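[Q] Does anyone have a clean structure-token version of this?
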Amino acid sequence: MSPTITVTDQDDEQDTGKVPARRMSLPGDPEDMLIDEACRELRLPAFRERFIDLAAGARREQATYKQFLLDMLQAELTDRDLHRQQRLLRLARFPRPKRLEDFDFAKNPNVTPEVVADLKSPTWVREGRPLVLIGDSGTGKSHLLIGIGTAIAETGLSVRYTTTSALVNELAEADANRRLSSVIARYSKIDLLCLDLCRHRDYAEQGVSAAGCSR
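[A] Here you go.
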């Protein structure tokens, strides 16, 4: 059975920004330059960015070689995970940034933090369970839809946002150009498809304007 959330009024516009990472200048030490060059060839950007700071910290703390190596490896893994999340969020094509942490539960008594917390887990997506958001226009459904999609993308699953009208037009155009099977195959590879329904009067009267569908 599909879980359903009913939402009430709240402001749906609040963007967030990110501060870009700062690249430290490289000293004139020949060994540092060789390490920098090796990191370029091995495609280890986090090593390049942080090996000087981490080496200095390891020297101050008298860390073992293994601990220093572990710190470097963890820095690289963290950096790659962050870049993967950013790539998945770009591929999701959300129209604007929205996070569940910014959702105003006080203005939406029908939406509980416990239910939303469960939806941040990718379990329901992997199980192929659908999610439907129901409420009048301007009640925060798009905020929830984008916020849930963002949380799922950050777990490493592929997500795609689109409107129902855009999807129908894309499928109709693909059918006319005899590419329908390839477009459907492309969508079938997405873990979570987030659909924002058309804001037509018939949908507004039914109180339905957003839905998330997992494969």
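[Q] Thanks! Anything notable?
[A] Residues 8-26, 200-209 have pLDDT under 50 and may be disordered.
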